[in-house]
């Protein structure tokens, strides 16, 4: 087989092919899939993969945003323009609305990452979604390293790490009873760097906050938080204007920026390749709560 | 974990290819240390991860930073000091991206090793040089051959603790080579290492002047995997039919799927199974435009010249090179369910490529002892983690090849229809 060199496949091609396979598998086997779309880079890449999986047809499922109400305006704007361009049906499940109606209670510290979970589960029940595409990657966090591509959730949306279905070859078992659902992670095998290489290769537009810009920030626990309506200066704190970018986009009250001059995708790739800190470690206050913060949230039904 | 010994540039590029490997062994073999070392030496270990592990290690009173904690992600694992599940790890060099399926080695975790090996291009087995081959090493080698992982690496670890004695290495290497000869292992590489000190991991060690082979990382970077793919037998399981409901795209009917094997080109005459109807490939589409050929693992959309009825679960192949259209299947299975054993007469759902059917177990020919390879022909059932040869009858034909010829069209899973659990992994020996 001397021709093998001719049939070379790059790692990005292999990852893309696998993700497309996963998405088609879901569309073929489920009644009501939905794609969780936050306007963050991973969900943007996932949306591009969905476009590719079903072309020339439109993406055959709606997208859902679990809206914490703590948003970066650039991200919301981006979300709406993507949805309009692709002609998608956008479902918004609002945490604020859930607080107003008493479904969830605002936490004392005002952060909304954790209280997204009941809002998500409520929407799953209301719209009877049976498969939810999420942009989580196994390289992000150690509990996620043990997550399946097709992750079974019981009728309470819970993840039981000790009781996961073995996943062999590319034979995904999506069977479930009514009320149960499957979380599907097409980007399981991608790393942060793979995502950025793909964004560069495919020229995928992103919200501007992913690139270096000047912003008024306050340093807190070694992280740089934007000073805005969600994060106010505490006594003794001083804000300053720094050149920063966001590595992740989550609840704006808990997501920190990193100091960076990377204002192009090429520079971001250089920066990510050289960095010594994981993206969640660098930017997520919510993951620093405990050793098993992510595992606990996932058990409760988090993304 | 002090010096980084990798001298090449570690910035990965877009031009890398992908190698998946499975590791097996227990904490005692130094498997986690080895993985930690690979991640560290390729600068894939992040300082906050390392700090977190150091903090937990210190809190538990470990005498050294326990790199096993890097891969033991779950609360129960940390509390009990055991590894429960397959963990996936990622690192890259300028040549390759690597996906590690890190599987625990204990006997009760055959299930995990089989799972990790099912997608692996390479299996990495560790032995402790002081202990030599143990039952577990042989079991892992057997599972590697059962799952047809194309490449096997045996790392003889802790060579520093036997004074880098060539005779110790030779004895283990000889013993393993003769055991491997009884299995169908096509490519075996044996490397003396010290994971703790980084010898022969990222670069050749001065401690083993008698060893003339590559370092582990060099081998992982250069092992030739392109030819492992089957580019001969055209197998395209139809996954999903794309028919846009749109005013701008009309009359489009494309068969979406991932090429399992072979090379497809527009103009090729094809046969569609199970109908047996013939047609010609009109075009092979992707979202980025039509392509001149499609080969594994590409996900594409095939259009045919003729309008024939094709749906999910059908297979596009070549008229003179087709899989069996079979309802009677003989296969090796690994039983994976702890709640109930496999029994003759049991009925299950079977998922094979993109086709799902129902099946009944017609017979259990033998249960295989994975340590001695002894066949117990009187076994009445298979318990969790047991392996045996069974006969199945399916409700509809499967479009199947022998697993040894094609890992995609030769593998299947069984699903319990009441619990929906995945209860077995199967490798087809014969289909008719």
Automatic annotation (TrEMBL), chain A:
One of its GO terms (molecular function) is sulfate adenylyltransferase (ATP) activity. Residues 282-303 are annotated as: Disordered. This is Sulfate adenylyltransferase subunit 2. InterPro entries: PAPS_reduct_dom, Rossmann-like_a/b/a_fold, SO4_adenylTrfase_ssu, Sulfate_adenylyltrnsfr_sub2. Belongs to the PAPS reductase family. CysD subfamily. Residues 33-256 form the Phosphoadenosine phosphosulphate reductase domain. Its EC number is 2.7.7.4. Keywords: ATP-binding, Nucleotide-binding, Nucleotidyltransferase, Transferase.
TrEMBL record, chain B:
It comes from Paractinoplanes globisporus. InterPro entries: CysN_GTP-bd, CysN_II, CysN_NoDQ_III, G_TR_CS, GTP-eEF1A_C, P-loop_NTPase, SO4_adenylTrfase_lsu, T_Tr_GTP-bd_dom. The keyword Ribosomal protein does not apply. NCBIfam families: CysN (TIGR02034). Keywords: ATP-binding, GTP-binding, Nucleotide-binding, Nucleotidyltransferase, Transferase. Residues 16-229 form the Tr-type G domain. The keyword Ribonucleoprotein does not apply. Its EC number is 2.7.7.4. It holds the Pfam family GTP_EFTU. GO terms for molecular function: nucleotidyltransferase activity. PROSITE patterns: G_TR_1, G_TR_2. It is an enzyme of class 2 (transferase). This is sulfate adenylyltransferase.
